[in-house]
Amino acid sequence: MAIELRVPTILRTYTGGAKAVNGDGATLAEFIDNVNGTHAGLKERIVEGEPEELRRFVNVYVNDEDVRFTGGLKTEVKDGDIVVVLPAVAGG
Amino acid sequence: MIEKGTYEAIVAHARKDHPDEACGVVIGPEGSDRAERFVPMLNAAMSPTYYQFDDEDWKRLYNEMWDRDEEAVVIYHSHTATEAYPSRTDIDRAQEPNAHYVLVSTRGGAHSQTYDGPVEFRSYRIIGGVVTEEEVRVVGSYEETEGED
């Protein structure tokens, strides 16, 4: 088992075109670090700043729960979870 | 290339929501470049100068597209007081390299609360901050164009 990351189209350049990649971790932050180890560059498109926070206009869900309401990068994850990174659609 | 029924549905949505910006997607099979399924979205900003897909609606639709191997072929929104050209915010926020970004302008009614007049309808690719306009060709149906180059 592993945790699945569903990769938005714009970030598939980092995954060799794969729509989904697997990783591990106990928290969302650990999981993102883990998948960044195998797909370098993903992380900086999802988090920013110091301390690290999720980027604006990128929504992240763990099993359909918006992580902004479950502890952000500290959200706990486990084998079998599905993490979705979904760019917001917005403009002026 | 867009089907007439879809074109008319996008224009109707832009007129209906005027003077607020209207937004939505037209979905098709991944990699097909066929805009087949018109889905108007709620503009969560309800604003004449800004649009943002409602987060929950967009997530629900994204799950559905994922399960059906579909993607957003067209992402459309309206400008209700300016031309049908991507604004700086549109360019900054564009995050779908496979999508045709359609802009509809209802600026003919910029000073009224309703609008039923002519519109501008233009389409762009927006990739890495670079805007490339593309020709819009309205066809009766994709089937009737099969066999063309």
From TrEMBL, chain A:
Superkingdom, taxonomy of origin: Bacteria
Signal peptide: none
PANTHER family associated with the record: SULFUR CARRIER PROTEIN CYSO, SULFUR CARRIER PROTEIN SLR0821-RELATED
Name assigned to this protein: MoaD/ThiS family protein
UniProt organism field: Kribbella sindirgiensis
